[in-house]
Amino acid sequence: MARTAVMLCQACRLIPFERSIPAGVDINAELVWRREGWLDLSYGVLTRAAKGIGALKLPTGLKDGPQQGERKDDLWTTTCFEAFLAAPGEQRYWEVNLAANGDWAIYRFDDYRSGQTRQELSMPPRLRLQRGAHSMRLDARISLAPWWTQGVCPDMGLTAVIDRGQDGLSHWALSHGRQADFHDRSTFLAA
After folding, report:
1. Sheet of 6-16, strand order
2. What's the domain range around 30?
3. Cα separation of 152 and 150, whole Å?
4. pLDDT average, residue stretch 96-110
5. Between these two residues, 84 and 59, which has the higher pLDDT value?
6. pLDDT band at residue 79, thresholds of 50, 70 and 90?
7. High-pLDDT (> 70) share of the chain, %
């Protein structure tokens, strides 16, 4: 059986925008983009705090393994893992939101924060959760067909919003400008 050609494979450590994040919290993101129209994302959270993963605000009733979520808006208002895909040389881009319980959303933007519409998918993303006392990993597989041009490697932004309850939200990305703005194309990995 022939192996699928990988066009882009990247693993990155995300950095927080807020300076108040306590030491001992690390977030990494990995992606594999395949020219056949698949995107695999993996987000890992490691915390050495006494409360461990319990310090994060997560949906109730989580169980490890495959998640059966649904399309929902406003996932970014609490713990949410995100990816931004941009068509190289074009203004349009897409925002992917993934929650630990399997809920998801994908939006298309015609230009910077404008022309937002829900992106229809041929199938919902497949999400899988693994947790330990001090770690959590969310893996996702997303079919980009038929809305992404097959064979065109996207510019990518990998981000996360982490809800620390009373300590508020923190915004994590590959890099940041003057503000925590995940839509800023200057913070994307170029294809």
Report:
1. 65-67, 126-131, 135-143, 38-47, 25-34, 6-16, 169-173, 155-163, 80-86, 93-98, 104-109, 117-118
2. 7-180
3. 6
4. 96
5. 84
6. very high
7. 96
66 domain residue, yes or no: yes
Look up the CATH number of the domain holding residue 139: 2.60.40.1190
Share of the chain above pLDDT 90, in %: 65
The DSSP result for the chain, as a single string, is: -PPPPEEEEEEEEEEES-TTPPTTEEEEEEEEEETTTEEEEEEEEEE-STTGGGGS---TT--SEEE---B-S-GGGSSEEEEEEE-TTSS-EEEEEE-TTS-EEEEEESBTTBS-EEPP-SSPPEEEEEE-SSEEEEEEEEE-TTTSPTT-PPEEEEEEEEE-GGG-EEEEES---SS--TT-GGGSBP-
Please state the rounded mean pLDDT for residues 137-153.
Answer: 92
User: In DSSP terms, which residues pair with 167 in a beta bridge?
Assistant: none
Average of per-residue pLDDT values in the chain? 90
Within a domain: 137:
yes
Q: What is the pTM of this model?
A: 0.91
Distance CA 90, CA 160 (A): 24
Evaluate the omega torsion of the peptide bond into residue 154 and state whether it is cis, within 30 degrees of 0.
no
- Average pLDDT for residues 70-88, to the nearest whole number? 95
